[in-house]
Amino acid sequence: MTDAQDALLDLVGSTTRSVLATLKRDGRPQLSNVTHHYDPERRLVRVSVTADRAKARNLERDPRASLHVTAEDFWSWAVVEGDATLSPVAGREDDATVEELVDLYRALAGEHPDWDDYRRAMVRDRRRVVRLPVGRVYGQPPQ
């Protein structure tokens, strides 16, 4: 990996706000503002989504995805591209998907004030996890 690629991935890890691009059936991009977590050891971006939203349906059909991150200065940016996978839909408060959603929440925000309520909400909302491995990264690294 080059120094520029390292700088771009550092940018991805420096924020949690991003835009996830998936592909609609007609090939045009579908863009969603999301909160993401980047794990540099696994070179993996994760996002919590609801099962019935366009981005989840698009990824079920076509796993190609891009995540765009912009720095505070607006001129530095990074795009992660890869083939995403989706966890199963959260079905029970103690299933593997809910456990991964708990792990993702902790990585993003720390401890939740009521984990039982959070777990119930993940099942009720039909949440899943998008896992986007870094296949390619490009952009304009910070100076």
UniProtKB/TrEMBL annotation:
One of its GO terms (molecular function) is coenzyme F420 binding. Residues 6-137 form the Pyridoxamine 5'-phosphate oxidase N-terminal domain. Keywords: Oxidoreductase. The keyword Chloroplast does not apply. It comes from the Bacteria. GO terms for cellular component: cytosol. The keyword Disulfide bond does not apply. InterPro entries: F420-binding_dom_put, F420H2_bilvrd_red/Heme_oxyg, Pyridox_Oxase_N, Split_barrel_FMN-bd. NCBIfam families: Rv1155_F420 (TIGR03618). PANTHER family: F420H(2)-DEPENDENT REDUCTASE RV1155, HEME OXYGENASE HI_0854-RELATED. This is Pyridoxamine 5'-phosphate oxidase-related FMN-binding.
